[in-house]
Amino acid sequence: MRSKEPSELKEIELSPPARRLRADASRNREKLVEIAGIVFAERGGDASLEDIARQAGVGIGTLYRHFPTREHLVEVVYRREVEALCAAADELAQHNAPDIALAEWMQRFVDYIAAKRGMANSLRILFDANSDVFANTAGMVASALRGLVEAAIADGSIRSDIDSADVLHALSGIYSSPDTPDWRDRSRRLVALLMDGLRWGAAKPRS
């Protein structure tokens, strides 16, 4: 049996730490994306990459290794926000009555819009650069909402003379609302009012 050369032994000895470093790097990246979504939603255009790195518990150099520019980070965060919102539609539908699932999802839409508003400048840059992020996510939110609306109509818990595209248009209006300190609370009230309108005249009024 051939004995291992010193170089082979060195490779064997270094492999576990190398795997740990890769795992740590992956966790750091995920944490940065998670924290960035929160900070963008809370602080908008004032959110700094330094603050994101600090809250994620890493140095700014680590952030830049994963995301060379602000736009690189925003693209990943935006994609994650869209995917999370769409996944929430399925989760809520599995555990709630159709109208409750729709109402809860619409409230989560406010948080999604808050993050999107916070990334507005970078998203415009990405759009002008013809980033494929918008092509890849186009229709995902509309499809998620359509499923919730159709289920609630079929259940009779919201009125049947509406279209999910109209609901999305109404929801999206909060994006352009004035950026005041109470924007999020005001948006939640408007969404609740919209949901009341959807329930009004339903075949099966919610008790």
TrEMBL record:
- Gene3D superfamilies the UniProt entry points to: Tetracycline Repressor, domain 2
Q: Which Pfam families match?
A: TetR_C_43 (PF21597), TetR_N (PF00440)
Could you list this entry's UniProt keywords, alphabetically sorted.
Answer: DNA-binding, Transcription, Transcription regulation
Q: Does the keyword Transmembrane apply?
A: no
Where is the HTH tetR-type domain positioned along the sequence? Answer: 26-85
Q: Which residues bind DNA?
A: 48-67
PROSITE patterns to which the protein is assigned, alphabetical: HTH_TETR_2 (PS50977)
The name this protein carries in UniProt is TetR family transcriptional regulator
Q: Which lineage do the record's taxonomy fields give for this organism?
A: Bacteria, Pseudomonadati, Pseudomonadota, Alphaproteobacteria, Hyphomicrobiales
